[in-house]
From TrEMBL:
Cellular component annotations (GO), alphabetically ordered: cytosol
Pfam entry (one): HAD_2
InterPro entries (UniProt xref): HAD-like_hydrolase_sf, HAD-like_sf, HAD-SF_hydro_IA, HAD_2, HAD_sf, PGP-like_dom2
Domain of life: Bacteria
Gene3D superfamilies: HAD superfamily/HAD-like, Putative phosphatase, domain 2
GO biological process, one term: DNA repair
GO MF, any single term: phosphoglycolate phosphatase activity
Organism: Acinetobacter kookii
Protein name, entry field: Phosphoglycolate phosphatase
Length: 222
């Protein structure tokens, strides 16, 4: 990528926030309350989608239970996720990017209520120029949330990078020809992420930090 980088858009769960384990546990708890079978792998596979899409994917045979299952999931997650936090090194990475005059944004499958809660928890609301949650737009991999972030920030797709740990993140960016970086420490494997032709796949936050700084340095050299 040799165009100026003006904006980095991050997925939240599994990319910035160490919450995958609790999401899986809460989904399984909710499934059990309604006698619905759910494996760890199936629960992990839908992380990144909006909640209505999660219910449709995981429980297609019982649409009448979707609202109750999602309510049970949400209540369990909020009650048990107090230990969730940023992955080690994320705070430093975000601060370094902000100091390099790169705009930051979030595009997540969380609800707006859930996103606002964790932004407050991490005291990071002011770090992000824009945030979009699946409850207020189209779910990934549809690119609408990215298009809305680009409109709000005044940045064109070629000057932005999407960072995420799932195929949904990278496919969403690919759909509007936005450069993208995968991270392999979240949900999907490097083999899955590679199908969407990312600029790179980071093994950990330190690797991601360096990859992004390299892109910013390219910006400064242009």
């Amino acid at each position: 990528m040799n165009t100026p980088v003006k904006l980095v858009i991050f997925d939240w769960d599994g990319t910035l926030f160490d919450s995958v384990g609790q999401i899986v546990a809460s989904l399984q708890f909710a499934a059990q309350q309604f006698q619905q079978p759910l494996t760890d792998e199936d629960a992990k596979s839908i992380i990144g989608l909006g909640l209505p899409e999660v219910a449709q994917r995981l429980f297609p045979a019982v649409p009448e239970l979707h609202a109750d299952i999602l309510q049970s999931y949400s209540e369990h997650y909020v009650a048990n996720s107090t230990g969730d936090q940023w992955f080690a090194g994320v705070a430093n990475m975000l601060e370094a990017l902000a100091q390099a005059d790169v705009k930051l944004a979030v595009a997540t499958g969380k609800s707006r209520k859930g996103l606002d809660r964790v932004l407050k928890q991490t005291q990071s609301m002011e770090l992000f120029a824009a945030t979009r949650a699946a409850s207020e737009t189209r779910s990934k991999p549809h690119p609408l949330m990215l298009e809305e972030i680009l409109t709000q920030t005044g940045v064109q797709a070629e000057h932005a990078i999407m960072v995420g740990d799932t195929s949904y993140d990278l496919e969403m960016a690919q759909n509007i020809a936005m450069p993208r970086i995968g991270v392999s420490y979240g949900v999907h494997t490097p083999e899955v992420l590679a199908r969407y032709h990312p600029l790179a796949i980071a093994e950990d936050v330190a690797d991601l930090h360096q990859l992004l700084l390299n892109q910013v340095n390219l910006k400064q050299a242009v």
